[in-house]
Write a structure and sequence with these properties.
By secondary structure, the chain is an alpha/beta fold. It has 15 helices and 13 strands. 39% of the residues lie in helices and 15% in strands. Helix 2 packs across helix 12 and helix 12 packs across helix 13.
Length: 386
Amino acid sequence: MPIVKCDECGRSFNLHEDQYGKVKCKCGAILAGPKGGGAAQPPPVATDLSDLEAVKHLKSAYDALRAEMAQVIVGQDKVLEELLIAIFARGHCLLEGVPGLAKTLMISTLAKCLDLSFKRIQFTPDLMPSDITGTEVIQDDRTTGERVFRFIKGPVFANIVLADEINRTPPKTQAALLESMQEKSVTVAGVQHKLSLPFFVLATQNPLEQEGTYPLPEAQLDRFFFKIFVNYPSDGEELDIMKRITMPSTVLTKPVLNSEQISLLQEIVLRVPVADHVYAYAKKLVRSTRPAMGEAPEFIKNWINWGAGPRASIFLILAGKARAILNGQFHVACEDIEAIAPSVLRHRIACNFTAQAEGITTDKVIEKLVQAIPKTEKLTAAPVAG
């Protein structure tokens, strides 16, 4: 007789298959039986692969994900690539784009292809922190007759959380995501509740309307691995979108990976080697964004108020590792760091009034900085402590 575990309180029960969905736990939750009964399962991933085999396997999984996503999403190849880089590097993403560019559809489709649980939170001015994290309610215990507190999980208890229009809610509610993003846990009434891994927050914001919005503070912006701009589709892509949406569709996305396989592939990404000159290039790139530093170019001192912190250096290397392995490379090149530098740095540096008056954006500064930093500088060995 199969053992069924309650999702709410963790109690275990022996149930027949015909009892699934009909029996209640003592906490009041319905016992739905084992998850994923008849759903399509992703292909297995061997856990004893060598590093070279693991790179090939991750590349094939990446290609399968792109092919599956392309059945639903037209274009946006760079956005999809950066989303997958962030996921395999254990990062969170902030997507910015005008309405109607399929940001929500893209994220929900990605969750289906990765066989992960998905929750959407629509941020509004009256949203409270407990609406995200969950709350405690008083409930009668049927066995003892006493009243007890029972924790009701909020939508943050999912593998992929879509924080839609995150800049529409006050800072108090925005901060409710801080602990979950950093610690992968939620604390309610002094009790810490662990989140299911892998856990990703993918937030969106609208750059058009700024009235009644609450810009994210720098401390929370810095916790996002990437800030990704979602742009308009090309002429051909827009025609393809029109034809797809206005015709009957029977496309069903299939899971390519599951949570256990994603965790395994995340470990593979960490094992990708990085040469010393690539470390030096990433370090130089980040330190050159700080106007107070001696190595900062003159245009940085003229246009930037403050530069990126050490978290940017770490994320450049992690993103470079993920990008290299997704493209079938066995090491990280400076070109990988250069390719993902805008998404890592654009929300970590701030232009001053001089730059704004001249029409200079952070992306233009990063583009000029990338051109100014050589890719062949060698990392000087640090002295050994005696």
